[in-house]
């Protein structure tokens, strides 16, 4: 895995509704995309819970001939399917001055955006910047660089007209990303995200138990969201925008 530092200082941060993802790793098949042609991709937000699972999933599936992990810091991976994968490259950028790093998006046909933070850790303005401004600017630069697919993670209940700040934030992000006009935009609206690093063991167990009653209604494991995103790249769409709700994410991510 190569590492590239963009020539900018490191910055601060990671429709048609669908009703309801020290030995050298073995050689993988030639990576191909939807049309059987080799494609290149990027991930922003690859240090978050969904992003981490998506990196593992795309490395395992060997979907792309090139995969750029674009973020504010370099991650040391112990998993050799990532660390020794010649297709994977990490690129440091300053998201507050992303225009200066526009060249890193050149020639990447598929983009995955898993950016997000909490109001508690970043404040109201900081959350808007990370959850809205960065994804929208990324979409703009990606389109200019030739991006044909943009896969965006938002949240269940996203609505730009919502009275609730978080769902309004996510809804406005969706609207502004759609307005960029990328050839295909896929929006994923998971419910509560389940991972080993989020919440207490008791809380995770309770959510998992409740979700068994109606998979995807209460929670979506981050690994399932990642698998759904990875599998969806090859899907043919009749419209330029699709919204994938939590139950559809669960079905897509758990299907054989």
Q: What best-fitting shape do the alpha-carbon axes yield?
A: globular
Main beta sheet:
9 strands, parallel
Q: Low-confidence parts, pLDDT < 50 over ≥5 residues?
A: 7-14, 24-30, 198-207
Mean pLDDT: 85
Spatial separation of the terminal alpha carbons = 29 Å
Strand order of the largest sheet: 1-5-4-3-6-7-8-11-2
**Strand and helix order:** EEEHEHEEHEHEEHEHEH
**Number of distinct beta strands:** 11
Helix-strand makeup class: alpha/beta
Q: Assess the beta-strand content as a share of residues.
A: 15-25%
Radius of gyration over all CA atoms, rounded: 17 Å
* Residues in helices, as a percent range: 25-40%
Q: What is the count of DSSP helices, taking H or I runs of 4+ residues?
A: 7
Report on this structure:
The protein is of the alpha/beta class. The protein has seven helices and eleven strands. It has helices at residues 49-61, 80-83, 119-144, 165-180, 201-211, 222-232, 246-254; strands at residues 2-5, 16-18, 40-44, 66-71, 88-92, 110-113, 149-153, 184-189, 192-194, 219-221, 241-245. A nine-stranded parallel sheet has the order 1-5-4-3-6-7-8-11-2, with helices on both faces. The protein has a two-stranded parallel sheet with strand order 9-10. The chain is globular and about 45 Å long. The two termini are 29 Å apart. The model is unreliable at 7-14, 24-30 and 198-207 (pLDDT under 50).
